[in-house]
């Protein structure tokens, strides 16, 4: 009896186990098929429009393009496009020919003023009185070239002889080439500043792109090449940083020696933060470009 019940129970259990396996298999299949059967497809805006109209849809995509501002020249001078000249010798020739006339012109003005001051020096040396016209000229130039107001007439004349003098053309030419990258720099193209001259009044020039925070200086702008050369010469002849330059020049004059550009260049240590390296570079440029002077 017990054995018979055991066999029957095992039969019932086998059937029950088979039913459970069948149900589990059915649930597994339903789980796999359900997401594809009951889930609604997600359509993009373009798909929805296309499915309704069955017409091609033109999609406009807005793309932000950074437009680089073109800086307009602050002058009316027709400046050669030095950057477009690929031949190095031709670029040098055109650059020097472009700057040279202004150098000759402005140096000429200084020589005329120097001749007048030399005449005053002769008068004072001979103890001759200065005329009203002489005194007016002396006062005007003393103010322009920033002389000490306490100077005597003789001191003023001597100091003016020290300050009113030329800078040799080759030295000016190579400095212009060096500072302006042969006329291709932003400051040369936009503001005719070939010499890296600074100014300090707001709006007096162009703001350097790499100016330090808190700095107020600008790179001066000019209306003509003559004006740029004139300012360069005035800077050399008045700025205390170039007192050594003026002293060397005066000694050469007193010894009746030529104003040799390489010798005078040694007085320009303060012109660049690079100091002696800058002077060496300028003197090398003078030697390498003699054929263009």
Structure report:
This protein is mainly α and 293 residues long. The protein has 2 domains: 52 residues; 211 residues, Lysozyme (Orthogonal Bundle), CATH 1.10.530.10. It has a 3-stranded antiparallel beta sheet with strand order 1-3-2. Helix 3 packs across helix 6.
Unreliable parts: 1-13, 32-53
* The CATH top-level class label of the largest domain: Mainly Alpha
Instruction: Give me the strand/helix succession.
Output: HHHHHHHEEEHHHH
Q: Which architecture of the largest domain does the CATH hierarchy give at level 2?
A: Orthogonal Bundle
Rounded mean pLDDT is 85
- Quaternary structure: single chain
Biggest sheet: strand arrangement: 1-3-2
Give the count of helical stretches.
11
- Total domain count: 2
**How much helical structure, as a percent, in the residues?**
55-70%
Tell me the number of strands.
Answer: 3
What overall geometry do the principal axes of the alpha carbons give? globular
How far apart the termini lie comes to 134 Å
Q: Could you name the CATH topology of the largest domain?
A: Lysozyme
Question: Helix- and strand-based class?
Answer: mainly alpha
β-strand percent reads under 5%
Largest sheet: 3 strands, antiparallel
Rg: 43 Å
